[in-house]
Automatic annotation (TrEMBL), chains A, B:
SUPFAM superfamilies: NAD(P)-binding Rossmann-fold domains. This is Saccharopine dehydrogenase C-terminal domain-containing protein. The lineage of its organism: Bacteria, Bacillati, Actinomycetota, Actinomycetes, Micrococcales. Gene3D superfamilies: Dihydrodipicolinate Reductase, domain 2, NAD(P)-binding Rossmann-like Domain. PANTHER family: CARBOXYNORSPERMIDINE SYNTHASE.
Length: 412, 412
């Protein structure tokens, strides 16, 4: 397996550090628009593990350049680790060059032109799924939404369907953290560009009765009690891939995603939107054309550099409500908690990007070993969940040493 | 009197419309960095009143250029109507060329390097007051802080001292409005650059016991009940010139300024500050160097263009607490309310910039007639208040037809 990882930001850098300890691949090429950043990601790998790595410059917005890089380095698997603006050129360049494709965020949505807060327009991933036939006909796989959320959350849902539930009433993805960044008034631990994109788009929700519908941003707030000391965090509906992925493979009456933004972050996003500072349309600032959202990102610290200053844990999981295999009511939260102190000590990566990056590496290892196989555009739900969760939880060196857990809910 | 008005933004444009109806001056030159904007301000004057107006290009940051313009047009009085970054070059250029100077905002403050929220560093206007001796020796006048707030509020305080009170315990300047701008989620009716500057600097307060001290931004919130239907608005301490002006001429135990920002605007300013978007230091956004605060301004509509979409009234005033001339406790709010519908109908200007612009024009008329005279750097308190208030309130054409009022407070 020869892997091209496109993007050497927080997630790409963490992926390099994780994959370096595994033996399943032959070469891991890190590509970035900024060659220095790709080189820096490679240099972050310990010297004794670095021989299978290479850094190259690549413009992810150019599908021809993506295809050229795949051919030049005889790549078999492309891991897309840049922000979702670049999904389509990478997806298409990979198809052209005939490699397997993996991403952690899917092609962008577009709101419904007349009823943006009631009906979806173009949904997340629609542009990819409409090409599924071509991929299937070519016998090639595009594994989409294979980060932590989407990704691990979808694996949890598949596991719940196979092993825990006979009927699923609700798949409620809940993502929250208690991270604080010392020395900053405000320092998001993940790309602000992506966070604005997902939080200010109309959230999509699914029900078997109405299919996919949308709501106003930040709708339906609830306090969710996250495990392992994180505690209660204000969660709101956010547009997320799980809602469009899970119903394609899992029978559930309802699917929704709520992100534990907390009141402070919600307030920040509301104000950015109110002032138009979330916009990606360039404005003229004394002769310079700049996108306000890029200015916001430039004013904030780079999340990839914050690791040593972060304290706390982040949690990804799915609350499943329904009936167990014996038909009794059951409500179960399947989750994965990562402590920043642990990821910093063991990988030198902050926990949020590490938790995102570990999942596609596990998936690549399962593909390399033939445990996961498939053709077409497929979500994580389309593959056996148990081998994935077992490999993640098993201690190193066989596994990745990162356990997941189940919490039975009292309210069931 | 030959007037040079520097700045053709909202206030400069409104000043042209107001002065056009008066006979006390010979020429009114409107200068702006952008000649087209100066020409547009002149064109906004009705054609039959336009013959005494001229538009010129001028860089307000260049004191030599300011002095040259004064000499070239044989200017006797300079009205500074640009944002307070340009106070010092205009002030110095005017001194060099030997004209009378008026402004509506004073030279900028600098926070105390160690204790910014306890002690003032460089106060508003300090850079101007330290030059007062030169102006006085030259027999020339710099009338500073002569807008509405500062300006009219200071005239009210002088009036209260002379005619209403024997002892003043507190001069509490309170500024509030109930303006809404149709069609916008968020559209400040005044320069966001200046609003950020004054609201995020440490607010200054005065007491006869401790002199000038500072607090945290947005400190000491109170609901103030504004008159004429505006109603209760959340007001907080804001750095403002009145607090440094009034104690120089009026004996008061305490002086403070609270601005009726309302909770929504306070929240917006807090978020801008938290994210560093209030900063004037350029950041690098994909190769372009831009100041985040300029980006915020570029994302918002130009306040000068909002007039037709605004509904509501704005109020400026001073609540004076102390003893009346007979020694009995008295608490009196002296105020000036302007309705946007009225300013739009009568002047084509929105109410906030109109209320700012009318005051220096009245002052210029009093200087032209010799009712106000003086030398040195002086605030509005240094001049007789009654002729000012009478001229403002008297119906046109003798006066400006804009009444002020007194409300006795029940709590006294």
């Amino acid at each position: 397996m020869r892997i091209l990882c496109i993007g050497a930001g927080g997630v790409g850098g963490a992926a390099a550090g994780i994959v370096a300890r595994r033996s399943f691949f032959e070469v891991f090429v890190v590509a970035d628009y900024d060659l220095a950043r790709a080189e820096s990601a490679v240099k972050s790998v310990p010297p004794e593990l670095r021989q299978r790595f290479e850094a190259v410059a690549l413009d992810a917005s150019n599908k021809g350049a993506v295809a050229d890089a795949i051919r030049r380095h005889r790549i078999t698997h492309v891991l897309n680790a840049v922000d979702p603006r670049f999904v389509m050129p990478i997806f298409e360049g990979t198809a052209e060059a005939g490699a397997t494709y993996l991403d952690m965020a899917m092609s962008l949505s577009a709101p419904h032109p007349e009823m943006p807060y009631q009906l979806p327009g173009v949904k997340l991933g629609d542009l990819q799924f409409e090409r599924s036939g071509e991929w299937e006909a070519a016998g090639r796989l595009a594994l989409v939404g294979m980060g932590v959320e989407p990704g691990l959350s979808d694996v949890f849902a598949a596991y719940a369907q196979e092993f825990l539930f006979s009927r699923i009433d609700e798949l409620a993805v809940r993502d929250g953290a208690n991270l604080v960044v010392e020395g900053y008034d405000f320092a998001p631990s993940f790309s602000i560009w992506t966070t604005i994109e997902e939080c200010l788009n109309p959230p999509v929700v699914y029900s078997s009765e109405h299919g996919w519908t949308t709501t106003e941003p930040f709708s339906d707030p609830e306090l969710f009690d996250f495990p392992e000391g994180i505690g209660q965090v204000e969660c709101v509906n956010v547009e997320h891939e799980e809602v469009v992925l899970m119903p394609r493979w899992i029978e559930a009456k309802a699917v929704n995603f709520k992100y534990g933004l907390g009141n402070e972050f919600i307030d920040v996003l509301r104000v950015l939107h109110k002032l138009g500072l979330d916009s990606t349309e360039p404005v003229n600032v004394k002769g310079s054309l700049v996108s306000p959202r890029d200015v916001v990102a430039a004013c904030l610290p780079d999340p990839a550099t914050l690791g040593p200053k972060i304290k706390g844990k982040t949690c990804a999981g799915v609350l499943v409500r329904g009936n167990d295999k014996e038909g009794r009511p059951r409500s179960t939260y399947l989750y994965h908690v990562v402590d920043n102190a642990w990821t910093m000590e063991n990988y030198g990566s902050q926990c949020v990007v590490w938790q995102t990056a570990i999942n596609p590496i596990i998936a690549l290892e399962l593909l390399a070993g033939g445990t996961w196989t498939g053709a077409g555009v497929l979500g994580p739900e389309a593959f056996p969940s148990k081998p994935f969760l077992d490999l993640m939880a098993a201690p190193e060196p066989e596994g990745y040493g990162s356990p997941w857990r189940i919490r039975e809910e009292d309210r069931a």
